Amino acid sequence: MGCRHSRLSCCKPPKKVEKERELELQEKLDEQRRALEGEHEAALQVLRASYEQEKEALTHSFQEAKASLQETIDGLTSQLGAFQAKMKRVEESILSRDYKKHIQDYGSPSQFWEQELESLHFVIEMKNERIHELDKRLILMETVKEKNLMLEEKITTLQQENEDLLVRGRNQAVVSR
């Protein structure tokens, strides 16, 4: 069964050569597979590290902004409540009742009451301006809050993408084995 040459020992039988070749190819393929798996794992580790860093940075900045905004909103809310309470007390104040009684008793207000009324109007106008400023700040805070919500959505999306990458990486590792 050997070769067609006159000497029997000059060539290896074909099946043996094929098996050796197959083994060599299998070894080369295994070596290439291991190299690709190593590269894949290294790239995956870099992606994971990058993702984690970005996620931590976004989460940290979001938490800081959220805490700051909540603090500002709480402060503005309490200021607005206090101001509204003061406005109600001014409206119901003794001065207001005395002024109305004076008008009923004597007709037109005296010079003193006119000055008091002007003073009250001035204070109310100042408070109204402050309310408008607080409203503007509240609107700004709501805008920042919306941006924070968008950042939360981005974090969720990045987490989902990371999960997808992890699954794809595992699937590639399984397929390459």
Automatic annotation (TrEMBL):
One of its GO terms (cellular component) is spindle. Residues 15-68, 141-168 form a coiled coil. The keyword Coiled coil applies. Keywords: Coiled coil, Cytoplasm, Cytoskeleton, Lipoprotein, Myristate. One of its GO terms (molecular function) is microtubule binding. It comes from the Eukaryota. This is Coiled-coil domain containing 69.
